[in-house]
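Annex B.
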Amino acid sequence: MRKNFGAKPWVYPQPVFIVATYDNEGNPNAMNAAWGGIHDDDEIFICMGANHKTSDNLEARKAFTVSIGDVSHMVECDYVGIESGLKVPDKFKKAGFTATKSEFVDAPIINELPMAFECEVLRYDREACRLVGKIKNVSIDERVLTSDDKVDVAKLAPIIFDGVNHTYLQINEKPVGKAFHDGAKLK
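Flavin oxidoreductase: predicted structure tokens.
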């Protein structure tokens, strides 16, 4: 038997996206964005509300990066989600993050997080909470790559957000199948 819960934003897995921007003075800022995903081959979307320092920075700089939260930095990733850059201007530094300016967009790459999407703003609607960015580059720290330059998910150790239980979970299971292959058994 099933139980109905009404409309809820409960999807699995839900990535932990850390959005980083520069403010008008060139100071880096980061926030944890729970709802988002890939929109197209070269677009990413994020539910981004109106009352964030990041919202102001997006409108001013028209660029951002999205890093994948990982197990090693779960505390820091959670911190940038519960603290406001409007109240704590140095929250990026307080989180222990350092930045390198992206070569592709006017936004910081968080050095501590091994994977980042470097994006320019395509559309941003504060009231509708919709941010769409064009992915200009994906940069990945070599320490999480295999010898043939693929992401080793075990080394990346991404975390996901469980919106039902308000917890972070680690993706650490071994593959259970081969995509675009195993279903052929049913043909």
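The mean pLDDT is 93. Residues 17-186 form a domain with the Pnp Oxidase; Chain A fold (CATH 2.30.110.10). Further annotation is deferred to the next reporting cycle.
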